Amino acid sequence: MLDRIGLIQIDSVNVLARSQEIVLFSRLGAHPRNLLPDATDARELFEYWVHEASHVPAVQYPLYRWKMDRGAEFAWRGVGELEVRRPGFIDKIYERVAAGPVVAGDVSERIGPKGSWWDWDDGKVALEHLFWTGRVAVRRRRGDFARIYELPEQRLPAVVLDLPAPPERDARKELLALAGRYLGVATFTDLTDYHRQKNQPAKALVDELVAEGRLVPVAVDGWKQQAYLHPDARQPRRVAARALLSPFDPIVWNRDRAERLFGFRYRIEIYTPAAKRIHGYYVLPFLLGDALVGRVDLKADRLGGRLLVQSAWAEPGIAHDAVVGELAEELRQMAEWLDLADVVVAGHGDLAESLRAAVERR
User: Fold this and answer.
1) pLDDT class for 117, splitting at 50, 70, 90?
2) Hey, which end of the chain has fewer CB within 10 Å, N or C?
3) DSSP characters over 48-91
């Protein structure tokens, strides 16, 4: 799977299951839920700021060394300014990590309760600075999902750490080529968005990839922008996919691309006040064939053993009868994977009534 999509974005919201697990479920179906932490412990994956915080194959570690070397430039303002404000403090925190793995609470200097989500004390800021700059690596603690900070040699295989780091220009170019392979066909901004690269330094690199035949300029019906086709992209006669997609799935994380490809306007509403939400809190697009045909707001009621469908919507022009049976089956399989006994459909959304009937029939 990672050979095909390259990275998995990490998100901590757990109202249904964490996003990184849902990305696997969408492609693999029911699978052991310890698959990602096991792969991390086996040092096959590492975490870094790629497309936001992401699981990435360990063999790609050298492609991000340039970003680590310039880490303070890419980090949030407070991370980059700490060394100026408290000279030597970051090195002291590094020495603490070198003595053994830590979590943020181990170096906390906080007095009183935490404020907002990003209300970090200096200990947490220092750990994040060290992470951005590659001096420490991280893994997630099983259970509460907290970051554990440790030395890179504890987290990555020696054979990977010993690989030469390509110059920044070469690494950026290779990441653009990888993005082309993962996307199949893409605009210039699709390519740069995948690994969160800046557009300006990428333009000449994409031109070089075209000259080398590693990307092929093409026109896509309905797209105003120049598109690029990867030479290895397949063009199947039909697509037989069926999947519920995380809000942070590569298919939909670029909202502009999702709208261009599928005519699917998607905005995550987690941070929208409840009264202003249109579709719900944690809404998953439903992929059927080669189209996004609907969306459902899902929640795992773990105490009650139920998968709650809090709203269900069909996309404009989609016949409900063509969707509800497939969606009901996908929901059943998701509930089973999450060890939930029942699927319960609420009455909200234009697809809810027919979906409830389909679920009850099953």
Assistant:
1) very low
2) C
3) EEESEEEEEEGGGGGGGHHHHHTHHHHS-HHHHHHHHHSTTHHH
H and E: helices and strands count for the chain: 16, 13
Question: How do 283-288 and 242-244 pair as beta strands?
Answer: antiparallel
Q: Model pTM?
A: 0.93
Residue 98 — left, alpha, or beta (φ > 0 → left; ψ -120 to 50 → alpha)? alpha
| Residue found by looking up tokens 């993005």 in the block | 179
d(CA 156, CA 158): 6
Q: Would you state the pLDDT for residue 203?
A: 97
In the chain, what's the furthest Cα-to-Cα distance?
66
The answer to whether the beta carbons of residues 42 and 157 sit under 8 Å apart is no
| Residue type present at position 10 | I
Q: For residue 306, which phi and psi values (nearest 5 degrees)?
A: -130, 145
Distance CA 348, CA 201 (A): 47
Partner residues linked to 311 by β-bridges: 297
Q: What are the phi and psi torsion angles at 17 (to 5°)?
A: -155, 160
Concatenating the DSSP letter of every residue in 105-136 gives: GGG----S---STT---HHHHHHHHHHHTTSS
Q: Decide the pairing of beta strands 185-187 and 216-218.
A: unpaired
Of residues 253, 249, 179, 261, the one with CA closest to residue 225: 261
Size (the chain), residues: 362
**pLDDT tens digits for range 72-85:** 777 766 776 788 88
Average pLDDT over every residue of 170-185: 98
- Report the C-alpha gap between 134 and 163 in whole angstroms: 15
Across the range 283-307, mean pLDDT stands at 98
